[in-house]
Design brief:
Radius of gyration: 19 Å
Structural class: alpha/beta
Largest sheet: 7 strands, parallel
Number of strands: 10
Distance between the termini: 23 Å
Strand order of the largest sheet: 1-4-6-7-8-9-10
Number of domains: 1
Helix content: 25-40%
Oligomer: single chain
Shape: globular
Number of helices: 10
CATH class: Alpha Beta
Length: 345
C-alpha cells in the first residue's frame, strides 16, 4: 500500500432495508435460503461501490454477509450449542443470552472464504477482512467444556489462524482481528491475550491488524464510558504489549473520545489505524474536524504509518449518514495529504 494516509473503515456498514432492519444492530435477516444468499452478495457489492465512490482506499465487505461480528463466525464451528443458552456478563457491562460450548471446538470448513473471494472480484484495490479475536470470542460464550478461558482462547486462536490463512489465499490483503475485550480484561491481556492473538496471526503474509475500541454507541457502552472519567487510559495497558507484538497495525478509537492522543506514542514503530470518525452519533464530521484529528496524531506516529479510519463499525447508522462520514474521512485525509506534500517541497 503506497498511498499516503490510506483510508479504511473498521468494520460494518449499514445494511440495505430489504436485507435487514435499518439502523438496528444485529438485526435478523429479512430474506431466506437462496434469496438471502443473493441478497447478501448484492449488499456486499453495494458496500464496495459506496466505499469506492467515497474515495476509500482499503475496501472491506462492510460485514454485509454476517449478522454479528463474533457469533456469525462461531455459528459455523462444532462444539457450540446455540439451542442451549445461558446468560453471561459481556465485557463486564451488560447481560446477554449466549450459546454454550459443550464439546471440543473445531472448524470443519471455511467460514468467510467464499464471501472474501467474492469481495476480491469486486475491486482491484487492497481489501481487508475482519475476524473476531480469541479473547472477545470467549467473552461471548458460556463454556461448559473447557472450563478455562485461556484454554478455550488458544483453541479459537488455532481455528482463527486456519481461517485467516485461507482468507489470505483467497486474495485478502489485510486481516483484522477485533479485540474490544482488550480494553477490559487487563490481567488476561498480559498473561495470554496478546500471545493468543499472535497465534491467530501466525505465519500470515497478509498485513495483520488488531482493532480495540470502546464499542458501538449502544446504551450499555455509553453508560460504561460515563464511568471512565475525564481521560480514557485503557490503551495504556494494551499498547506497550502490542508495540512489541508480531501484529503489524493497531486500530484505535479517537474521534470525540476521551482517549489522550499522546497514548499513540506507545505504539511508535507500528502502523496505526486511527479512528477519526465517531460512529456513536448521526452528526457527520466536517473534513476539517477529521483533518484536525489526524494532525494531532501525527505528533506521535509517522505519516507513512498512519491509516485514517472510523472508530468502529457503522451498522446502527442510516445509510445516508454513513455515506457522509465516508466522504468526510476521505476529504479530511486529502487535506492533510496536501499539507504533507507542501511540507516536502
Amino acid at each position: 500500500m503506497h498511498t499516503l494516509l490510506p483510508t479504511s473503515i473498521v468494520g460494518s456498514l449499514p445494511k440495505p432495508s430489504w436485507l435487514a432492519q435499518p439502523e438496528t444492530l444485529w438485526s435478523p435477516w429479512k430474506l431466506q435460503t437462496d434469496a438471502l444468499a443473493e441478497g447478501k452478495q448484492d449488499a456486499l457489492r453495494i458496500a464496495v461501490q459506496e466505499q469506492r465512490r467515497s474515495g476509500i482506499d482499503i475496501i472491506s465487505d462492510g460485514e454485509q454477509t454476517r449478522q454479528h461480528f463474533v457469533t456469525t463466525f462461531i455459528e459455523h464451528l462444532t462444539g457450540v450449542d446455540f439451542e442451549r443458552r445461558e446468560t453471561v456478563r459481556i465485557r463486564n457491562r451488560y447481560d446477554a443470552s449466549v450459546p454454550t460450548v459443550v464439546g471440543a471446538v473445531s472448524r470443519e470448513k471455511p467460514v468467510f472464504v467464499d464471501d472474501a473471494a467474492f469481495l476480491r472480484q469486486q475491486t482491484d484495490q487492497p481489501i481487508k477482512w475482519a475476524l473476531p479475536g480469541p479473547m472477545t470470542m470467549i467473552d461471548t460464550l458460556a463454556d461448559r467444556h473447557y472450563k478455562s478461558r485461556e484454554k478455550l482462547a488458544w483453541e479459537f486462536a488455532t481455528i482463527l489462524n486456519q481461517e485467516a490463512k485461507e482468507l489470505e489465499a483467497a486474495g485478502v490483503d489485510i486481516i483484522q482481528f477485533d479485540e474490544p475485550a482488550f480494553n477490559v480484561f487487563f490481567d488476561e491481556l498480559q498473561d495470554w491475550g496478546v500471545a493468543a492473538l499472535e497465534r491467530a496471526a501466525e505465519g500470515l503474509r497478509a498485513e495483520t491488524v488488531v482493532h480495540i475500541c470502546y464499542g458501538y454507541g449502544i446504551k450499555a457502552n455509553n453508560d460504561w464510558k460515563a464511568t471512565l472519567g475525564s481521560e480514557w487510559r485503557q490503551y495504556e495497558e494494551s499498547f506497550p504489549l502490542l508495540q512489541k507484538s508480531a501484529l503489524d497495525v493497531v486500530s484505535l478509537e479517537c474521534q470525540h473520545s476521551r482517549v489522550p492522543i499522546d497514548l499513540v506514542e506507545l505504539l511508535r514503530g507500528k502502523k496505526v489505524m486511527l479512528g477519526a470518525i465517531d460512529v456513536a452519533t448521526d452528526a457527520v464530521e466536517t473534513p476539517d474536524e477529521v483533518a484536525d484529528t489526524l494532525r494531532r496524531a501525527l505528533a506521535f506516529v509517522d505519516a507513512d504509518k498512519l491509516v485514517p479510519s472510523t472508530n468502529c463499525g457503522m451498522a446502527p447508522l442510516s445509510r445516508s449518514v454513513a455515506r457522509g462520514k465516508l466522504s468526510a474521512l476521505r476529504a479530511g485525509a486529502d487535506i492533510v495529504r496536501g499539507e504533507l506534500a507542501a511540507d516536502t517541497r
